[in-house]
Amino acid sequence: MNRLIFLDMDGVIVDLQNPVHQLHGMDVNGAFHRGELQMTDAELWGRTDCNWWANLPWMEDGRAILALCEDAVGAENVVICSTPAAWPGSAEGKLRWIEQQMPNYARRFILTPDKSWCANGRTLLIDDTEKNVTAFHQAGGASLLCPRPWNCFHFHDAVNFLRCGIAEMLV
Questions:
Q1: Which of 38, 110, 119, 150 could form a cystine bridge with 33, CB 3.0-4.6 A?
Q2: Do residues 72 and 167 touch, judged by C-beta distance below 8 A?
Q3: d(Cα 163, Cα 108) in Å, to the nearest integer?
């Protein structure tokens, strides 16, 4: 049975955290992921536009994570799955980022407010947010939390952790 890997963008392959830090002059990422951020959407995203989203950098290990997924299930079975911010320009900017940085994925992506809608017995979600990973698993899909400084697996090397996790889940 072919498996599909749904691969998150922000925080997994795309560096959202450092540009948000630069935008606000403070580290808002840990608070954001813990649900403790005391900013409105307008305060958080108000200075962003489509171009800001389209020009975000890759995570340092983003290309390695993508290659790991492609090697595991074949590039044709990897789908970019991302939740746009509820702010004008985010969804369009994410699509432009995919077109510019990953043209082979320009027709292989899902933008959704709820990634668990994609969960089933042959899907694996790789995401950096514990809430998304838990919801996906509860909806019947497999999931792996990508280790990042803002989540509980922060002490693991992301590429090695995901390599082991993917191999285990695809057995």
A1: 150
A2: yes
A3: 22
Question: Angle, nearest 10°, between helix axes 62-73 and 158-169?
Answer: 20
The set of residues, in sequence order, having a beta carbon less than 8 Å from that of 45 and lying 6+ positions away, is 85, 87, 90
Contact 135, 115 (CB under 8 A): yes
Shortest CA distance to 153 belongs to which of 12, 27, 18, 32? 12
pLDDT at 31 exceeding the cut of 70: no
Q: Is the pLDDT of residue 34 over 60?
A: no
Domains in the chain, CATH or no CATH each: 4-169 (3.40.50)
Give the number of other CB atoms < 10 A from CB of residue 123.
21
The answer to whether the pTM exceeds 0.70 is yes
Sign of CA dihedral 29, 111, 80, 120: positive
Asked whether the predicted pLDDT for residue 2 surpasses 70, the reply is no
Say if residue 100's pLDDT is above 90. Answer: yes
